[in-house]
Amino acid sequence: MSEQLQHVHLNDTHVALGAKMVPFAGFNMPVLYTNLIEEHICVRQQVGVFDVSHMGEFYLKGERALDLIQYVCSNDASKLVDGKVQYSCLPNDQGGIVDDLLVYRVKENEYMLVVNASNIEKDWNWISSHNSFGVEMTNQSDEYSLFAVQGPKAILALQKLTGVDLLSMPYYSFKIGQMAGIDEVIISNTGYTGAGGFEIYVKNEQALAMWNAIFEAGSEFGIKPIGLGARDTLRTEMGYCLYGHDIDDTTSPIEAGLSWITSFNKNFIASDIHAKIKAEGAKKKLVGFEMIDRGIPRQHYPIVNEAGEYIGEVTSGTQSPNLSKGIGMGYVKTEYAKVGTEIYVQIRDKSLKAVVVKMPFI
Amino acid sequence: MNFPEQLKYTQEHEWIRLEGDVAIVGITDFAQGELGDIVFVEVETVGKNIAKDAVFGTVEAVKTVSDLFLPVAGEVIEFNTALNNSPELINSDPYGEGWIVKLKPSNLGDLSELMDVATYKSFVAH
Fold this sequence. Notes:
heterodimer, B: six-stranded antiparallel β-sheet, 9 strands, 35% strand
């Protein structure tokens, strides 16, 4: 595997915009353009654009494409109809998670899977190794750019660019149509910010034209480019899991609160392990918590009870730009997972009080 | 970026300025820019004697946490309590209202070993 940093197609555009570029998941990515809190608020109140072209896109085609997807994914993809999207995860054979992903049903016998950049190779190898169904798989990750246009004004900006009726599109649906004069754009009512908006998949050759068109259309709504820093605070405020933080090779979707994407009316890899966890009750659970004492939780900080005994670990944490206080997610022993339970986060040798809350945080 | 002439600087991006026998310490414009929005400053070393380069506090931005290192040995005598409610002063005025602690250096001569503005500027440029 090459250690060299990959570049998204619009790398030079981000540099020219003054973005701070950092290595992330093997890509040189814009983490910040101007100011994290400003970018965060821009998405919550107006509209912002993330270049998330590092994400991976696999196409699965063939008569048994659904059978393969049903076997490698936790969610029930048989519920998908053309133009619908489903959040799912790839369980490993040890009771953990290979990755979380989106499954798009393009048409009968044709699906697109969208996976995390850091896991493209791992996912590809994993799915391929279970493809005893004769499904034709292609990895088109290097061909697509992906722009997440997020925020309450996103629909107003994008509607100026397309004849597709965006208002009629339900959450987690997509259409393939013309946008900004470009054909065969995948217009997806998805995103990972909780602010509403769309994700736009476009071939690299048209990426710059699309980017420019989106910014021109959005200028009257105060559109801004948004870095990965704000993407992380936005998803954390919603309590959305990030692979490598809140879920990984060792966590069960049941423990992670992802039972809702884990369907036991079909057989999938290691489904017996997860069914057992579900039946017996998870020993640990992913919870959201807010700091009561002043402090900011960070990944890997220990969580303890009032007696100072270790009960778990923080997996994501930040100062919430919307709430102006520390919020976090972490695994705790199940007896501490109930909303309202007081827990303590160890920050620099001090145990600071926090309380388990319902997510999303905002 | 703004780097005042009369200050001394460290490789950890703190600045120090002498007023009589009291030194005032903060972080540089470069440091605040790298950290981004500062949301929390914790200093619990007031009244303590601390060695040069030892941690005297912590500054937290939205996404990162960073230790604060004392530029010279001495006793921390005051924390800028305005930062409790307005940590963003470090972003808006790093050399003025965003100062972090005052200290009594053990040896005033120690300051002369720190970087002057020209040296710090070239240090930051690399």
